[in-house]
Specification:
- With about 300 residues, the protein is of the alpha/beta class.
- The chain has two domains: about 90 residues, Winged helix-like DNA-binding domain superfamily/Winged helix DNA-binding domain (Arc Repressor Mutant, subunit A, Orthogonal Bundle), CATH 1.10.10.10; about 210 residues, D-Maltodextrin-Binding Protein, domain 2 (3-Layer(aba) Sandwich).
- The protein is built from ten helices and eleven strands.
- It starts with 11 loop residues before the first helix and ends with a strand.
Amino acid sequence: MDMRPRRFLPSIKLLLAFDAVVRHGSVTAAAEELSLTQSTVSRLILSLEEQLGRELFLRQRRRLIPNAAALSYQRDVARALDMVQRASMAVVANPEGGTLSLAVLPTFATRWLGPRLGDFLKRHPGIALNMSTRIARFDFEVEIFDAAIYFGAADWPGANHLKLFDERATACVSPGFAAAHRLESVDDLRDLPMLHLESRPNAWADWFEGQGGAPCQGGGMLMDQFSMMIQAAISGLGVALLPDYLAQIEIAEGRLVPVLRQAVPIRGAYWLVWPEAKTADAPLMAFRSWLAAESGAEERVIRAT
């Protein structure tokens, strides 16, 4: 194996100082964070520039102002430092197993995935699972995740896809709302406030079509998470259109009641996605097989194009 040129492998101490100065925009603040003197931080920055053979900062009245190259370099350095930190933490916390870092949708994680994870961890005690919530898509080359669960179509750029299940939606209202309004046909809903989710712009149109009625968007509140929509519906603010797996929890607990036909198919599905480079990682392979079984999906992978 070829050795890495040492010139391009600055020490962690140099990189920590550089990262802190760029993040804070101040040598003083960076010194406080690192428990070093200002002069020491300045010397570390100078040593990094000498090693790279390039200036990274403009010196102006004892201030260090990062140039364009420094700003770009800091983004990569910060990501590399995060990777080293996570890898070190994994070795300490789980030396015999593997680690899986997963990005998940907030409500899906708490209401569908969370209650099932105990079984996965019981079956795979050597795997440490780290989860963070993400609503929007991201670049696997920038974010430090092994895989993600998202809703939509099989079009995450550069990722392999495993379909978990299609979306089916159930309209729900609070018991008090149901008692105060006629809810016997789709026409009864047209003048009622409907609660909308930003990531499901076509959901209500699909639901009306699935009920055999003409599409109707209706007026009402727009939200970015199902948890907010559920609370709004419980408070009697309108009709919520929820994933059926989520609606059934609220219905069983008596907080909401269903409206018309339940579990109506709408556009979109839940997917597990991961970069090709992670395909053979043992923790991901174990999670993928377990998740496919839990969701009733065929373990048929759509490869990245």
